[in-house]
Amino acid sequence: GAVVSQHPSRVICKSGTSVKIECRSLDFQATTMFWYRQFPKQSLMLMATSNEGSKATYEQGVEKDKFLINHASLTLSTLTVTSAHPEDSSFYICSARGRGRNNEQFFGPGTRLTVL
Amino acid sequence: GQNIDQPTEMTATEGAIVQINCTYQTSGFNGLFWYQQHAGEAPTFLSYNVLDGLEEKGRFSSFLSRSKGYSYLLLKELQMKDSASYLCAVSTGFQKLVFGTGTRLLVSP
Lengths: 116, 109
Description:
The structure holds two protein chains of two kinds.
Chain A: E1 4-7, E2 10-13, E3 19-25, E4 30-38, E5 45-51, E6 57-58, E7 67-73, E8 76-81, E9 90-98, E10 106-107, E11 111-115
Parallel strand pairs in A: 2-11
Antiparallel strand pairs in A: 1-3, 3-8, 4-5, 4-9, 5-6, 7-8, 9-10, 9-11
Chain B: E1 3-5, E2 9-13, E3 18-25, E4 32-37, E5 44-49, E6 53-57, E7 60-65, E8 70-75, E9 84-91, E10 97-99, E11 103-108
Parallel strand pairs in B: 2-11
Antiparallel strand pairs in B: 1-3, 3-8, 4-5, 4-9, 6-7, 7-8, 9-10, 9-11
């Protein structure tokens, strides 16, 4: 149990376009979902935390108008990178936390974004 | 602020034992996680410590000392497939995980 999927796994887009990444918890209800960004050879940096039905909480330095997060249901959260630029190229990973799961977060397989 | 430190890189030989240290200073503590991450993949859960002491799980063990802000991950009988990054992460008081810089482990024959 506790499987989290992400789609797409890999995306290449042109500068100035928007990209949507989906994160789904497949076999449990995710009360909270987290979005991370990871640059090459660096660790995961938390971008935002989203609870179902409420606005996301963004970490300091993360532009909420550029990285739009929607947590519409207990199994789905989306991250939209608006007006993407080459510096947004990164590995985006979501994780999900369910009720009574001892603080553990279950990670999706990640999305590799390349902006040309 | 939040500060979690790990060595950047370590090397070891197949069959050996390696210990990866993690020190932390965070606002809030709800437990410490260790994750393994292969290049280009998402992290996978290895261990969770919330009380002081040693947790053993097969070839992997994790130790925590809350008073010292210190943890280590011990890997025994190293295999080539253990070459990966190992991430120490602290769960703070607001559900969040704060990750360390990660330790890249290279296992050689």
